[in-house]
Design brief:
The chain is 82% helix and 0% strand. The chain is mainly alpha-helical.
């Protein structure tokens, strides 16, 4: 396996982390939408930054599809792991706020 895929995983982690921070700052509610956007941005960034386009002209289109599949897998995993800590902290903060505003003696 080429080191390019490892760099793609790190880039995806970064995209997921930053995307989650922006998502939380904007008050996003649907984490699936976050993951979809982050994976799309990550795959586009992977192809733009990490791909040596001359090899696709020399070889078959199958190589492009293999790279696409690997970039998608690494993007999904990287973005999910990158966004998880931010979303976890957001959930904890929401639960703490909810418990602080709950009626005394009332258990949720």
């Amino acid at each position: 396996m080429d080191f390019t895929y490892y760099i793609a995983g790190l880039l995806s982690f970064f995209v997921g982390f930053v995307g989650a921070i922006i998502f939380v700052a904007l008050g996003g509610e649907n984490p699936r939408r976050l993951v979809k956007w982050c994976v799309a941005v990550s795959v586009i960034a992977d192809f733009a930054l990490l791909t040596y386009w001359v090899k696709y002209l020399e070889l078959s289109p199958l190589l492009f599809l293999v790279d696409l599949v690997f970039f998608l897998v690494f993007a999904f995993i990287g973005c999910s792991f990158g966004a998880s800590p931010v979303l976890f902290v957001r959930d904890i903060v929401r639960k703490l706020r909810k418990s602080a505003t709950a009626e005394p003696g009332h258990l949720d």
